[in-house]
Write a structure and sequence with these properties.
21 helices; alpha/beta; 3-stranded antiparallel beta sheet; 40% helix; 15 strands; 3 domains; 8-stranded parallel beta sheet
Protein backbone atom coordinates (compact mmCIF):
# COMPACT_ATOMS: atom_id res chain seq x y z
CA UNK A 1 0.00 0.00 0.00
CA UNK A 2 1.39 3.38 -1.00
CA UNK A 3 1.99 5.86 1.78
CA UNK A 4 0.43 9.21 1.03
CA UNK A 5 2.55 12.27 1.74
CA UNK A 6 0.57 15.47 1.93
CA UNK A 7 3.03 18.22 2.87
CA UNK A 8 1.75 21.75 3.12
CA UNK A 9 2.04 23.04 -0.42
CA UNK A 10 0.05 25.29 -2.76
CA UNK A 11 -0.26 22.24 -5.02
CA UNK A 12 -2.60 20.61 -2.50
CA UNK A 13 -4.48 23.71 -1.38
CA UNK A 14 -7.67 22.95 -3.37
CA UNK A 15 -7.80 19.40 -2.03
CA UNK A 16 -7.15 20.65 1.49
CA UNK A 17 -9.91 23.28 1.23
CA UNK A 18 -12.39 20.75 -0.14
CA UNK A 19 -11.57 18.25 2.61
CA UNK A 20 -11.87 20.87 5.35
CA UNK A 21 -15.17 22.21 4.00
CA UNK A 22 -16.56 18.69 3.70
CA UNK A 23 -15.56 17.90 7.27
CA UNK A 24 -17.08 21.16 8.57
CA UNK A 25 -20.34 20.62 6.70
CA UNK A 26 -20.66 17.03 7.90
CA UNK A 27 -19.92 18.12 11.46
CA UNK A 28 -22.43 20.96 11.27
CA UNK A 29 -25.06 18.62 9.86
CA UNK A 30 -24.41 16.20 12.69
CA UNK A 31 -24.94 18.86 15.36
CA UNK A 32 -27.94 20.42 13.64
CA UNK A 33 -29.88 17.67 11.80
CA UNK A 34 -32.50 20.25 10.77
CA UNK A 35 -29.86 21.95 8.60
CA UNK A 36 -28.91 18.76 6.78
CA UNK A 37 -31.56 19.24 4.11
CA UNK A 38 -29.76 22.45 3.16
CA UNK A 39 -26.28 20.96 3.44
CA UNK A 40 -26.49 17.72 1.51
CA UNK A 41 -25.81 19.34 -1.91
CA UNK A 42 -22.61 21.19 -0.83
CA UNK A 43 -21.56 18.06 1.08
CA UNK A 44 -22.03 16.05 -2.09
CA UNK A 45 -20.06 18.59 -4.17
CA UNK A 46 -17.14 19.12 -1.82
CA UNK A 47 -17.13 15.48 -0.73
CA UNK A 48 -17.00 14.42 -4.38
CA UNK A 49 -14.11 16.80 -5.06
CA UNK A 50 -12.29 15.48 -2.00
CA UNK A 51 -12.75 11.90 -3.17
CA UNK A 52 -11.56 12.91 -6.64
CA UNK A 53 -8.46 14.54 -5.13
CA UNK A 54 -7.48 11.45 -3.15
CA UNK A 55 -8.16 9.32 -6.21
CA UNK A 56 -5.78 11.57 -8.17
CA UNK A 57 -3.09 11.09 -5.53
CA UNK A 58 -3.41 7.30 -5.60
CA UNK A 59 -3.75 6.68 -9.36
CA UNK A 60 -0.51 5.90 -11.22
CA UNK A 61 -1.19 6.80 -14.84
CA UNK A 62 -1.08 10.61 -14.77
CA UNK A 63 1.85 12.27 -13.01
CA UNK A 64 0.30 15.74 -13.25
CA UNK A 65 -2.78 14.57 -11.34
CA UNK A 66 -0.58 13.02 -8.63
CA UNK A 67 1.20 16.37 -8.18
CA UNK A 68 -1.82 18.62 -8.75
CA UNK A 69 -4.92 16.79 -7.52
CA UNK A 70 -8.22 18.27 -8.73
CA UNK A 71 -6.62 21.35 -10.34
CA UNK A 72 -4.94 19.32 -13.12
CA UNK A 73 -8.38 18.35 -14.42
CA UNK A 74 -8.84 21.98 -15.50
CA UNK A 75 -5.86 21.57 -17.82
CA UNK A 76 -7.30 18.39 -19.33
CA UNK A 77 -10.66 20.10 -19.87
CA UNK A 78 -9.02 23.03 -21.65
CA UNK A 79 -7.07 20.67 -23.88
CA UNK A 80 -10.33 19.16 -25.06
CA UNK A 81 -11.46 22.54 -26.47
CA UNK A 82 -10.23 22.13 -30.01
CA UNK A 83 -8.59 23.48 -31.96
CA UNK A 84 -8.26 26.93 -30.39
CA UNK A 85 -7.22 26.14 -26.81
CA UNK A 86 -5.10 23.12 -27.74
CA UNK A 87 -3.29 25.22 -30.31
CA UNK A 88 -2.74 27.97 -27.73
CA UNK A 89 -1.31 25.62 -25.12
CA UNK A 90 0.85 23.53 -27.43
CA UNK A 91 1.86 25.74 -30.35
CA UNK A 92 2.34 29.17 -28.80
CA UNK A 93 6.13 28.86 -28.63
CA UNK A 94 7.63 30.94 -31.43
CA UNK A 95 11.32 30.08 -31.22
CA UNK A 96 10.89 26.70 -32.89
CA UNK A 97 12.59 24.85 -30.04
CA UNK A 98 9.74 22.88 -28.42
CA UNK A 99 8.27 19.95 -30.30
CA UNK A 100 5.01 20.59 -32.13
CA UNK A 101 1.70 19.37 -30.75
CA UNK A 102 1.41 16.67 -33.41
CA UNK A 103 4.86 15.26 -32.66
CA UNK A 104 4.17 15.13 -28.93
CA UNK A 105 0.80 13.54 -29.57
CA UNK A 106 2.44 10.74 -31.57
CA UNK A 107 4.93 10.04 -28.76
CA UNK A 108 2.21 10.05 -26.08
CA UNK A 109 -0.01 7.75 -28.12
CA UNK A 110 2.77 5.27 -28.80
CA UNK A 111 3.94 5.31 -25.20
CA UNK A 112 0.39 4.59 -24.01
CA UNK A 113 -0.26 2.09 -26.84
CA UNK A 114 -3.36 3.90 -28.01
CA UNK A 115 -4.39 4.50 -31.61
CA UNK A 116 -1.78 6.72 -33.30
CA UNK A 117 -3.65 7.06 -36.60
CA UNK A 118 -5.46 10.22 -37.63
CA UNK A 119 -8.13 11.20 -40.18
CA UNK A 120 -8.23 13.64 -43.09
CA UNK A 121 -4.75 12.92 -44.48
CA UNK A 122 -1.72 15.19 -44.63
CA UNK A 123 -1.84 18.15 -42.28
CA UNK A 124 1.39 19.73 -43.51
CA UNK A 125 1.65 22.52 -46.07
CA UNK A 126 2.96 20.27 -48.84
CA UNK A 127 3.62 23.22 -51.17
CA UNK A 128 5.38 25.33 -48.58
CA UNK A 129 9.13 25.87 -48.55
CA UNK A 130 10.93 23.21 -46.54
CA UNK A 131 8.35 20.43 -46.89
CA UNK A 132 10.09 17.03 -47.07
CA UNK A 133 8.97 13.55 -47.93
CA UNK A 134 10.26 10.02 -48.34
CA UNK A 135 9.69 8.21 -51.63
CA UNK A 136 7.66 5.01 -51.70
CA UNK A 137 7.99 2.06 -54.07
CA UNK A 138 5.44 0.50 -56.39
CA UNK A 139 6.99 -2.79 -55.28
CA UNK A 140 6.94 -2.56 -51.46
CA UNK A 141 8.76 -5.22 -49.47
CA UNK A 142 7.24 -7.45 -46.80
CA UNK A 143 7.46 -5.95 -43.31
CA UNK A 144 10.83 -6.87 -41.80
CA UNK A 145 11.73 -7.58 -38.19
CA UNK A 146 11.67 -4.20 -36.45
CA UNK A 147 14.52 -5.02 -34.07
CA UNK A 148 17.00 -3.07 -36.17
CA UNK A 149 20.53 -3.24 -34.81
CA UNK A 150 24.04 -2.19 -35.81
CA UNK A 151 27.43 -3.29 -34.51
CA UNK A 152 29.60 -0.52 -33.03
CA UNK A 153 33.31 -1.20 -32.71
CA UNK A 154 36.18 -0.79 -35.13
CA UNK A 155 39.28 -2.96 -35.70
CA UNK A 156 40.84 -1.81 -32.40
CA UNK A 157 37.76 -2.62 -30.32
CA UNK A 158 37.84 -5.90 -28.39
CA UNK A 159 34.22 -5.78 -27.23
CA UNK A 160 31.91 -4.51 -30.01
CA UNK A 161 28.39 -3.58 -29.02
CA UNK A 162 25.23 -4.56 -30.89
CA UNK A 163 23.12 -1.42 -30.56
CA UNK A 164 19.55 -0.56 -31.42
CA UNK A 165 19.14 2.16 -34.05
CA UNK A 166 17.15 4.20 -31.47
CA UNK A 167 18.55 4.85 -27.99
CA UNK A 168 18.10 7.23 -25.06
CA UNK A 169 20.22 10.34 -25.43
CA UNK A 170 22.40 11.82 -22.70
CA UNK A 171 20.49 13.11 -19.66
CA UNK A 172 22.24 13.22 -16.30
CA UNK A 173 20.95 12.22 -12.90
CA UNK A 174 20.50 15.56 -11.21
CA UNK A 175 18.93 17.00 -14.32
CA UNK A 176 16.48 14.07 -14.17
CA UNK A 177 14.84 12.76 -11.03
CA UNK A 178 15.74 9.37 -9.54
CA UNK A 179 12.43 7.88 -10.69
CA UNK A 180 12.91 9.20 -14.22
CA UNK A 181 16.35 7.57 -14.45
CA UNK A 182 14.97 4.33 -13.01
CA UNK A 183 12.12 4.22 -15.54
CA UNK A 184 14.33 5.06 -18.52
CA UNK A 185 16.86 2.39 -17.67
CA UNK A 186 14.22 -0.23 -16.90
CA UNK A 187 12.57 0.56 -20.25
CA UNK A 188 15.92 0.20 -21.99
CA UNK A 189 16.45 -3.14 -20.28
CA UNK A 190 13.03 -4.39 -21.33
CA UNK A 191 13.44 -3.20 -24.93
CA UNK A 192 17.13 -4.12 -25.31
CA UNK A 193 18.36 -0.65 -26.20
CA UNK A 194 20.93 1.69 -24.66
CA UNK A 195 20.68 4.48 -22.10
CA UNK A 196 23.27 7.29 -22.17
CA UNK A 197 24.10 8.44 -18.64
CA UNK A 198 24.84 12.06 -19.46
CA UNK A 199 27.94 13.66 -17.97
CA UNK A 200 26.71 13.57 -14.36
CA UNK A 201 28.18 10.13 -13.65
CA UNK A 202 26.77 6.63 -13.21
CA UNK A 203 24.25 6.81 -10.38
CA UNK A 204 22.70 3.95 -8.38
CA UNK A 205 19.48 4.68 -10.28
CA UNK A 206 21.23 3.88 -13.58
CA UNK A 207 22.41 0.55 -12.16
CA UNK A 208 19.25 -0.49 -10.35
CA UNK A 209 17.50 -2.17 -13.30
CA UNK A 210 20.50 -3.36 -15.29
CA UNK A 211 19.81 -1.72 -18.66
CA UNK A 212 22.69 -1.18 -21.10
CA UNK A 213 24.60 2.04 -20.39
CA UNK A 214 26.69 4.40 -22.48
CA UNK A 215 28.88 6.24 -20.00
CA UNK A 216 29.41 9.86 -21.02
CA UNK A 217 32.50 11.64 -19.73
CA UNK A 218 32.33 15.43 -19.82
CA UNK A 219 34.87 18.12 -19.08
CA UNK A 220 34.13 17.85 -15.35
CA UNK A 221 35.08 14.12 -15.40
CA UNK A 222 32.29 13.43 -12.91
CA UNK A 223 32.60 9.94 -11.51
CA UNK A 224 36.27 9.68 -12.54
CA UNK A 225 37.96 12.83 -11.28
CA UNK A 226 40.61 13.85 -8.81
CA UNK A 227 39.92 16.45 -6.14
CA UNK A 228 41.43 19.16 -8.36
CA UNK A 229 39.01 18.32 -11.19
CA UNK A 230 41.51 16.43 -13.35
CA UNK A 231 40.87 13.03 -14.93
CA UNK A 232 41.43 9.98 -12.70
CA UNK A 233 42.38 7.03 -14.90
CA UNK A 234 42.13 4.41 -12.15
CA UNK A 235 38.62 5.44 -11.13
CA UNK A 236 37.59 5.56 -14.79
CA UNK A 237 38.84 2.01 -15.32
CA UNK A 238 37.05 0.78 -12.20
CA UNK A 239 33.69 2.08 -13.42
CA UNK A 240 34.13 1.55 -17.18
CA UNK A 241 34.94 -2.15 -16.90
CA UNK A 242 31.56 -2.88 -15.31
CA UNK A 243 29.58 -5.21 -17.58
CA UNK A 244 26.53 -2.93 -17.60
CA UNK A 245 28.52 -0.20 -19.36
CA UNK A 246 28.70 -1.09 -23.05
CA UNK A 247 30.40 1.99 -24.52
CA UNK A 248 32.35 5.03 -23.25
CA UNK A 249 31.72 8.45 -24.77
CA UNK A 250 33.79 11.62 -24.49
CA UNK A 251 31.56 14.70 -24.52
CA UNK A 252 33.36 17.47 -26.40
CA UNK A 253 30.33 19.73 -26.75
CA UNK A 254 26.55 19.70 -26.43
CA UNK A 255 24.25 20.88 -29.20
CA UNK A 256 22.05 23.12 -27.07
CA UNK A 257 24.99 25.03 -25.56
CA UNK A 258 28.25 24.22 -27.40
CA UNK A 259 31.32 25.82 -25.89
CA UNK A 260 29.52 26.58 -22.64
CA UNK A 261 30.40 25.12 -19.26
CA UNK A 262 28.16 24.89 -16.22
CA UNK A 263 28.20 25.36 -12.45
CA UNK A 264 26.12 23.52 -9.89
CA UNK A 265 26.23 25.87 -6.86
CA UNK A 266 27.67 24.49 -3.63
CA UNK A 267 24.29 24.82 -1.91
CA UNK A 268 22.81 22.30 -4.35
CA UNK A 269 25.62 19.75 -4.07
CA UNK A 270 23.88 17.21 -1.86
CA UNK A 271 25.64 14.28 -0.24
CA UNK A 272 24.26 12.00 -2.96
CA UNK A 273 25.40 14.27 -5.81
CA UNK A 274 28.78 14.65 -4.11
CA UNK A 275 29.24 10.89 -3.95
CA UNK A 276 28.08 10.16 -7.51
CA UNK A 277 29.98 12.98 -9.21
CA UNK A 278 33.09 12.72 -7.08
CA UNK A 279 33.02 16.34 -5.97
CA UNK A 280 33.36 17.85 -2.53
CA UNK A 281 30.35 19.11 -0.62
CA UNK A 282 30.42 22.81 0.17
CA UNK A 283 32.17 23.64 -3.13
CA UNK A 284 30.80 24.65 -6.52
CA UNK A 285 30.54 21.71 -8.95
CA UNK A 286 32.14 23.13 -12.07
CA UNK A 287 31.84 21.70 -15.58
CA UNK A 288 34.40 23.70 -17.57
CA UNK A 289 33.85 24.75 -21.15
CA UNK A 290 36.95 22.85 -22.33
CA UNK A 291 38.80 19.69 -21.35
CA UNK A 292 41.93 19.57 -19.22
CA UNK A 293 42.97 16.06 -20.34
CA UNK A 294 43.88 17.22 -23.86
CA UNK A 295 44.36 20.45 -25.80
CA UNK A 296 45.16 19.34 -29.37
CA UNK A 297 43.52 16.97 -31.86
CA UNK A 298 46.40 14.51 -31.50
CA UNK A 299 46.10 14.53 -27.70
CA UNK A 300 42.35 14.03 -28.06
CA UNK A 301 42.84 10.89 -30.19
CA UNK A 302 45.35 9.54 -27.70
CA UNK A 303 42.89 10.17 -24.87
CA UNK A 304 40.13 8.29 -26.71
CA UNK A 305 42.55 5.43 -27.31
CA UNK A 306 43.31 5.42 -23.58
CA UNK A 307 39.57 5.38 -22.76
CA UNK A 308 39.21 2.28 -24.92
CA UNK A 309 42.19 0.60 -23.24
CA UNK A 310 41.07 1.44 -19.69
CA UNK A 311 37.54 0.20 -20.38
CA UNK A 312 38.85 -3.22 -21.40
CA UNK A 313 38.46 -2.71 -25.14
CA UNK A 314 34.89 -1.40 -25.24
CA UNK A 315 33.80 0.96 -28.02
CA UNK A 316 35.15 4.44 -27.32
CA UNK A 317 34.05 7.57 -29.13
CA UNK A 318 33.10 11.19 -28.74
CA UNK A 319 30.10 13.50 -29.01
CA UNK A 320 30.16 17.02 -30.37
CA UNK A 321 28.18 19.72 -32.09
CA UNK A 322 29.98 20.87 -35.23
CA UNK A 323 31.29 24.42 -35.01
CA UNK A 324 34.36 25.48 -37.00
CA UNK A 325 34.64 22.95 -39.79
CA UNK A 326 38.41 23.00 -39.75
CA UNK A 327 38.39 21.80 -36.13
CA UNK A 328 36.61 18.57 -36.99
CA UNK A 329 38.84 18.14 -40.03
CA UNK A 330 41.83 18.66 -37.72
CA UNK A 331 40.52 15.73 -35.68
CA UNK A 332 40.35 13.72 -38.92
CA UNK A 333 43.97 14.62 -39.68
CA UNK A 334 44.90 13.56 -36.14
CA UNK A 335 43.28 10.16 -36.78
CA UNK A 336 45.44 9.76 -39.89
CA UNK A 337 48.63 10.90 -38.14
CA UNK A 338 48.24 8.82 -34.96
CA UNK A 339 46.50 5.79 -36.45
CA UNK A 340 44.01 6.05 -33.55
CA UNK A 341 40.39 6.07 -34.64
CA UNK A 342 37.29 6.37 -32.46
CA UNK A 343 34.77 3.57 -32.74
CA UNK A 344 31.91 6.03 -33.03
CA UNK A 345 31.07 9.72 -33.26
CA UNK A 346 27.77 11.19 -32.04
CA UNK A 347 26.81 14.42 -33.81
CA UNK A 348 24.58 16.63 -31.67
CA UNK A 349 22.59 19.31 -33.48
CA UNK A 350 22.13 22.82 -32.15
CA UNK A 351 18.39 22.09 -31.95
CA UNK A 352 19.13 19.63 -29.13
CA UNK A 353 17.59 20.21 -25.73
CA UNK A 354 18.95 21.09 -22.31
CA UNK A 355 17.70 21.95 -18.85
CA UNK A 356 18.97 25.50 -19.08
CA UNK A 357 21.15 27.56 -21.43
CA UNK A 358 21.44 31.15 -22.65
CA UNK A 359 18.94 31.90 -25.41
CA UNK A 360 21.68 32.91 -27.83
CA UNK A 361 23.43 29.56 -27.38
CA UNK A 362 20.23 27.55 -27.87
CA UNK A 363 19.07 29.47 -30.92
CA UNK A 364 22.14 30.66 -32.79
CA UNK A 365 25.29 28.75 -31.88
CA UNK A 366 26.42 25.51 -33.48
CA UNK A 367 25.53 23.60 -36.64
CA UNK A 368 22.06 22.04 -36.96
CA UNK A 369 21.87 18.27 -36.84
CA UNK A 370 21.25 17.60 -40.52
CA UNK A 371 24.18 19.65 -41.78
CA UNK A 372 26.37 18.37 -38.94
CA UNK A 373 25.77 14.66 -39.41
CA UNK A 374 26.13 14.93 -43.19
CA UNK A 375 29.37 16.90 -42.82
CA UNK A 376 30.86 14.29 -40.47
CA UNK A 377 29.65 11.42 -42.67
CA UNK A 378 31.33 12.95 -45.73
CA UNK A 379 34.51 13.91 -43.91
CA UNK A 380 34.99 10.30 -42.81
CA UNK A 381 34.36 9.13 -46.39
CA UNK A 382 36.92 11.68 -47.56
CA UNK A 383 39.66 10.18 -45.36
CA UNK A 384 38.67 6.54 -46.05
CA UNK A 385 37.54 6.00 -42.42
CA UNK A 386 33.78 5.73 -42.76
CA UNK A 387 33.72 1.93 -42.78
CA UNK A 388 35.43 1.69 -39.37
CA UNK A 389 33.61 4.51 -37.54
CA UNK A 390 29.89 4.46 -36.73
CA UNK A 391 28.01 7.77 -36.68
CA UNK A 392 25.17 8.50 -34.28
CA UNK A 393 23.13 11.66 -34.10
CA UNK A 394 20.75 13.56 -31.82
CA UNK A 395 18.60 16.66 -32.17
CA UNK A 396 14.78 16.62 -32.00
CA UNK A 397 14.48 12.98 -33.04
CA UNK A 398 11.01 11.64 -32.21
CA UNK A 399 9.31 9.85 -35.11
CA UNK A 400 10.24 7.11 -37.54
CA UNK A 401 10.47 9.73 -40.29
CA UNK A 402 13.03 11.63 -38.18
CA UNK A 403 15.06 8.43 -37.87
CA UNK A 404 14.91 7.64 -41.58
CA UNK A 405 15.80 11.19 -42.61
CA UNK A 406 18.83 11.32 -40.31
CA UNK A 407 20.02 7.97 -41.64
CA UNK A 408 19.65 9.19 -45.22
CA UNK A 409 22.04 12.00 -44.33
CA UNK A 410 24.67 9.67 -42.89
CA UNK A 411 23.69 8.48 -39.41
CA UNK A 412 23.94 4.82 -38.43
CA UNK A 413 21.74 5.29 -35.37
CA UNK A 414 19.82 8.02 -33.54
CA UNK A 415 19.53 9.14 -29.93
CA UNK A 416 16.51 10.90 -28.48
CA UNK A 417 16.08 12.72 -25.19
CA UNK A 418 12.89 14.76 -25.29
CA UNK A 419 10.79 12.05 -26.93
CA UNK A 420 11.71 9.63 -24.13
CA UNK A 421 10.90 12.39 -21.64
CA UNK A 422 7.47 12.68 -23.25
CA UNK A 423 7.10 8.93 -22.85
CA UNK A 424 7.77 9.47 -19.14
CA UNK A 425 4.95 12.01 -19.05
CA UNK A 426 6.78 15.32 -19.65
CA UNK A 427 4.31 17.99 -20.79
CA UNK A 428 7.06 20.43 -21.83
CA UNK A 429 6.13 22.95 -19.16
CA UNK A 430 9.58 24.56 -19.61
CA UNK A 431 10.21 24.50 -15.85
CA UNK A 432 13.15 22.04 -15.84
CA UNK A 433 15.51 24.60 -14.29
CA UNK A 434 13.13 25.54 -11.45
CA UNK A 435 13.01 22.16 -9.67
CA UNK A 436 9.21 22.42 -9.86
CA UNK A 437 8.57 19.99 -12.70
CA UNK A 438 4.83 19.18 -12.56
CA UNK A 439 5.32 15.57 -13.70
CA UNK A 440 8.29 14.56 -11.55
CA UNK A 441 10.64 14.10 -14.52
CA UNK A 442 13.20 16.85 -13.87
CA UNK A 443 12.97 17.53 -10.14
CA UNK A 444 14.87 16.38 -7.08
CA UNK A 445 11.94 17.25 -4.81
CA UNK A 446 10.80 13.86 -3.44
CA UNK A 447 7.24 15.11 -2.99
CA UNK A 448 7.13 15.90 -6.70
CA UNK A 449 9.05 13.01 -8.23
CA UNK A 450 6.79 10.53 -6.38
CA UNK A 451 4.27 11.41 -9.07
CA UNK A 452 6.35 9.45 -11.59
CA UNK A 453 5.43 5.80 -11.03
CA UNK A 454 8.38 3.72 -12.25
CA UNK A 455 6.60 0.50 -13.39
CA UNK A 456 4.00 2.44 -15.37
CA UNK A 457 6.56 4.74 -17.03
CA UNK A 458 8.91 1.82 -17.72
CA UNK A 459 6.21 0.27 -19.86
CA UNK A 460 5.62 3.55 -21.67
CA UNK A 461 9.34 3.98 -22.45
CA UNK A 462 9.41 0.45 -23.82
CA UNK A 463 6.19 0.95 -25.79
CA UNK A 464 7.41 4.17 -27.41
CA UNK A 465 10.67 2.56 -28.55
CA UNK A 466 8.96 -0.55 -29.89
CA UNK A 467 6.17 1.33 -31.69
CA UNK A 468 8.58 3.81 -33.28
CA UNK A 469 10.80 1.06 -34.67
CA UNK A 470 7.70 -0.71 -35.95
CA UNK A 471 6.72 2.51 -37.74
CA UNK A 472 10.25 2.68 -39.17
CA UNK A 473 9.88 -0.88 -40.47
CA UNK A 474 6.61 0.14 -42.14
CA UNK A 475 8.27 3.15 -43.79
CA UNK A 476 11.13 1.02 -45.07
CA UNK A 477 8.83 -1.67 -46.44
CA UNK A 478 6.73 0.94 -48.25
CA UNK A 479 9.92 2.29 -49.82
CA UNK A 480 11.08 -1.13 -50.97
CA UNK A 481 13.76 -1.41 -48.28
CA UNK A 482 14.35 -3.81 -45.41
CA UNK A 483 16.99 -2.23 -43.13
CA UNK A 484 17.82 1.39 -42.23
CA UNK A 485 21.35 0.87 -43.58
CA UNK A 486 19.82 0.75 -47.06
CA UNK A 487 18.44 4.31 -46.84
CA UNK A 488 20.18 6.78 -49.16
CA UNK A 489 19.79 10.52 -49.85
CA UNK A 490 18.04 9.74 -53.13
CA UNK A 491 15.09 8.37 -51.12
CA UNK A 492 14.15 11.86 -49.84
CA UNK A 493 13.08 15.13 -51.44
CA UNK A 494 12.97 18.71 -50.13
CA UNK A 495 10.81 21.53 -51.51
CA UNK A 496 12.85 24.70 -51.94
CA UNK A 497 9.95 26.74 -53.36
CA UNK A 498 6.33 26.23 -54.40
CA UNK A 499 7.53 24.96 -57.80
CA UNK A 500 11.04 23.59 -57.19
CA UNK A 501 12.07 20.34 -55.52
CA UNK A 502 15.51 18.82 -54.99
CA UNK A 503 16.45 15.37 -53.77
CA UNK A 504 18.69 15.06 -50.73
CA UNK A 505 21.33 13.71 -53.12
CA UNK A 506 21.43 17.14 -54.79
CA UNK A 507 21.17 19.11 -51.56
CA UNK A 508 23.86 17.09 -49.79
CA UNK A 509 26.39 15.93 -52.42
CA UNK A 510 28.69 13.16 -51.21
CA UNK A 511 32.48 13.10 -51.36
CA UNK A 512 34.26 10.28 -53.13
CA UNK A 513 36.16 7.81 -50.95
CA UNK A 514 39.56 9.36 -50.18
CA UNK A 515 38.66 12.67 -51.84
CA UNK A 516 40.09 14.78 -49.02
CA UNK A 517 43.37 12.91 -49.25
CA UNK A 518 43.53 13.34 -53.03
CA UNK A 519 42.46 16.98 -52.99
CA UNK A 520 38.90 18.24 -53.30
CA UNK A 521 37.16 21.14 -55.02
CA UNK A 522 34.04 20.75 -52.85
CA UNK A 523 33.47 24.21 -51.30
CA UNK A 524 32.19 22.71 -48.03
CA UNK A 525 35.56 21.06 -47.46
CA UNK A 526 38.30 22.60 -49.60
CA UNK A 527 39.21 25.67 -47.56
CA UNK A 528 38.51 24.06 -44.18
CA UNK A 529 40.75 21.09 -45.04
CA UNK A 530 43.59 23.49 -45.90
CA UNK A 531 43.13 25.33 -42.60
CA UNK A 532 43.05 22.15 -40.47
CA UNK A 533 46.12 20.81 -38.69
CA UNK A 534 46.49 17.78 -36.44
CA UNK A 535 48.70 19.61 -33.97
CA UNK A 536 46.18 22.32 -33.06
CA UNK A 537 42.48 23.16 -33.10
CA UNK A 538 43.41 26.62 -34.39
CA UNK A 539 43.27 27.24 -38.14
CA UNK A 540 46.64 27.65 -39.87
CA UNK A 541 45.82 31.06 -41.28
CA UNK A 542 44.42 32.29 -37.97
CA UNK A 543 47.35 31.40 -35.74
Amino acid sequence: METLMLPFSPRFIILTICAVITALLVTLGGFEPRLFKFLWIPILIFGGLTALGFSDLLQKSHAVLRNYPITAHIRFLLEEIRPEMRQYFFESEKDGKPFSRDTRAVVYQRAKMVLDKRPFGTQEDIYGDGYEWMHHSVAPKPLSDAHFRITIGGPDCAKPYSASVLNISAMSFGALSPNAVRALNAGAKKGNFAHDTGEGGVSPYHRENGGDLIWEIGSGYFGCRNRDGSFNAEEFARVATDDQIKMVELKVSQGAKPGHGGVLPAAKVSEEISRIRGVAMGEDCISPASHRAFSTPIEMMKFIGEMRRLSGGKPAGFKLCIGHRWEFLAICKAMLETGIYPDFIVVDGNEGGTGAAPAEFMDHLGMPMREGVNFVHNALIGINARDRIRVGTAGKIATAFDLARAMALGADWCNSARAFMFALGCIQSLSCHTDRCPTGVTTQDPTRNRALVVPDKTTRVYNYHRATLHALAELLAASGLQHPQEIRPIHFSHRISSTDVLSFARLYPQLRPGELLDGTDNPRFRDAWELAQASSFAAKALM
